[in-house]
Specification:
two-stranded antiparallel ribbon, about 200 residues, about 40% helix, alpha+beta, 7-stranded antiparallel β-sheet, Chalcone isomerase, 7 helices
């Protein structure tokens, strides 16, 4: 190989490395996660990601995107701008059963007084998951909070209903993963980037 060819090869490798570094991708259980995404015109960074286990089974990869690093539910709620929590399913799960698990997660992390205020949102969420029948491996469910619009739920790439306007419902929903009794402690720590 000539010196000229060696220099070209080194430069090309360097450029490719710089391009990859600028557009880094994390992979968990064969699910690719971008380091940054855009929600409502705002660039969000990957706060953390991990796997939700139910017993020995991998259920989904969960990832959280925020405008700045957060390490608790309170920090997440207080963080400015949009936020996104995504679940990419690793196995088939009945969506009505999944909706019931989400409801139980809210009940486990929300006071009775708070629960009474978010009943309309709970009913609407139950209807959304019942309508989807099942999530299969590779299906994605995303929860996006935009302060200007509210909470949008996407299932399999489609917006499921008008956004939920109530910030209290968004906080209650996030408590499933980040509250005092999370569905999965390891996933909570992974998405909050707690070492």
């Amino acid at each position: 190989m000539s010196l000229k060819t060696a220099i070209r090869t080194a430069l090309l490798a360097g450029l490719m490395g710089a391009t990859l570094a600028a557009h880094a991708v994390t992979e968990i259980a064969n699910v690719k996660l971008e380091d940054t995404i855009t929600v409502a015109g705002t660039k969000l960074q990957l706060n953390g990601a991990g796997i939700r286990y139910k017993g020995p089974f991998k259920v989904y990869v969960g990832d959280l995107y925020t405008t700045k690093k957060v390490h608790s539910l309170d920090e997440l709620i207080a963080a400015p701008g949009p936020k996104r929590l995504t679940m990419t399913f690793l196995r088939e799960i009945d969506s009505a059963s999944f909706g019931k698990l989400l409801t139980r997660g809210i009940e486990d992390n929300t006071s009775k007084a708070e629960m009474s205020k978010i009943v309309p949102g709970m009913i609407k969420m139950g209807d959304i998951f019942a309508a989807n029948k099942a999530f299969n491996a590779g299906d994605v469910c995303a929860l996006e909070w935009d302060p200007a619009k509210g909470l949008s739920i996407y299932a399999k790439g489609k917006l499921q209903a008008e956004p939920f306007q109530d910030p209290a419902f968004f906080k209650a929903l996030m408590s499933i993963w980040f509250g005092t009794s999370p569905a999965d402690w390891k996933l909570k720590d992974a998405m909050l980037d707690v070492k």
